[in-house]
Design brief:
This protein has 361 residues and is mainly α. The chain is built from eleven helices and no strands. It has helices at 15-42, 48-75, 84-119, 125-151, 168-197, 204-214, 217-231, 239-262, 267-275, 308-316, 331-358.
Length: 361
């Protein structure tokens, strides 16, 4: 290990602000997850995305606990002022905390991806396969990184940083790749819903509202991008001090992944507080998990509010118009026109009910 020189700013300890940055957003993340599970249980819509988000919250709780141990034992001070016992303890808990932090972020992103798949299940195929493919690649990179984090070095608990390891740069390169891919996933999952919603025949303000609600992940993507940029600026010797910005932005990223991933499912609570509406299965358009196919037909928007079996009945009610070249429509053609007008009237009524249920009065 290289000989360290005294840092110019002296023996500073930044543990207090880092713990505030970690635990304050964690409280909101925890409350949002509890609220999400409560809403889904009340509406009987508990799904895989909810289980993944709950798992991410549990992993993030463990991460925050280990991070607190690190900070209270000198993890926010310059390495120059730490003794060998403190360095070993910090390194031990840092190695334990890092996989939990990575898994919390990964499972949070996976939850958002599964929620998008539930919403886009009747959409065009490229969005679904884009999510499937990139989620599989991202989780594979995450698993490889976690395995290497534990097997890269021998007798890791007793070693000083950078010693006794096989090709240390391999782990750092995979960590950088995993962080870059995670940033890409945050922005991709935030923007994909807009590619479908914007093609629907809805009022522009309704489109903007839904797109914004499902695109909150951009904030997590910004934190992830800043964290990734910090990889390139950290010095190689004073590793405790260099990890401070990375740890802070990593904690902020996981918190925002959980919070922003939960908000779209909490609309029934907001409606309950704002308008006194009951927490019913139809109180939130995202509870059913059925986004209509992108098209110019407004009646397909109703897939947001009804069960799949009910949707199938609506979709089978096709409208057949008579031949425009016919000068004298027959009785059957008149009946078809009446049926078409009746279907349109019913569609318009359902559309209004959908918007009221979604909170867009």
């Amino acid at each position: 290990m290289e000989v360290l020189s005294p840092p110019p700013d002296g023996d500073r300890n930044r543990a207090a602000p880092l713990l505030i940055i970690t635990w304050f957003p964690y409280g909101f993340a925890l409350m949002s997850t509890f609220a999400r599970v409560f809403v889904r249980l009340r509406s009987k819509r508990l799904g895989m995305d909810d289980y993944l988000m709950a798992l991410a919250t549990v992993l993030f709780t463990i991460t925050c606990g280990l991070f607190t141990v690190i900070m209270t034992n000198g993890g926010a001070r310059h390495l120059f002022y730490l003794n060998s016992t403190e360095v070993t303890l910090i390194l031990k808990y840092a190695i334990l905390a890092n996989p939990f932090s990575i898994m919390a972020s990964a499972f949070g992103k996976a939850s958002v991806a599964v929620l998008m798949l539930r919403i886009l299940q009747k959409s065009v195929y490229w969005q679904k396969w884009f999510i499937y493919t990139n989620l599989a690649l991202y989780m594979a990179i995450t698993v490889v990184y976690i395995i290497l984090a534990f097997v890269q070095c021998s007798a890791l608990w007793q070693k000083t940083p950078g010693t006794g390891c096989r090709e240390p740069h391999v782990l750092s390169d995979i960590a950088l790749l995993q962080s870059l891919y995670g940033t890409f996933m945050d922005f991709a999952l935030a923007l994909i819903p807009s590619t479908v919603l914007w093609k629907l025949n809805m009022h522009p303000k309704h489109k903007v509202g839904l797109c914004c609600l499902l695109s909150l992940g951009v904030f997590a993507g910004i934190c992830s991008a800043i964290k990734t940029a910090a990889f390139f600026s950290r010095p190689g010797t004073d590793f405790t001090w260099a990890q401070i910005p990375i740890s802070a932005w990593a904690a902020a990223e996981v918190s925002l992944v959980i919070i922003c991933g939960n908000i779209p499912t909490l609309k029934p609570i907001f409606d309950r507080l704002r308008k006194g509406t009951p927490l019913s299965p139809r109180a939130n358009i995202f509870e059913q998990g059925n986004l209509p196919e992108a098209s110019n037909s407004s009646h397909e928007v109703f897939d947001l509010a009804f069960h799949p079996d009910e949707i199938q009945v609506e979709q089978e009610a096709e409208i057949h118009l008579p031949d425009r070249n016919s000068a004298h429509p027959t009785g059957n053609e008149k009946d078809m026109v009446k049926g078409a007008l009746s279907t349109l009237d019913r569609t318009q009524t359902q559309f209004k009910e959908l918007l009221e249920a979604a909170g867009f009065d």
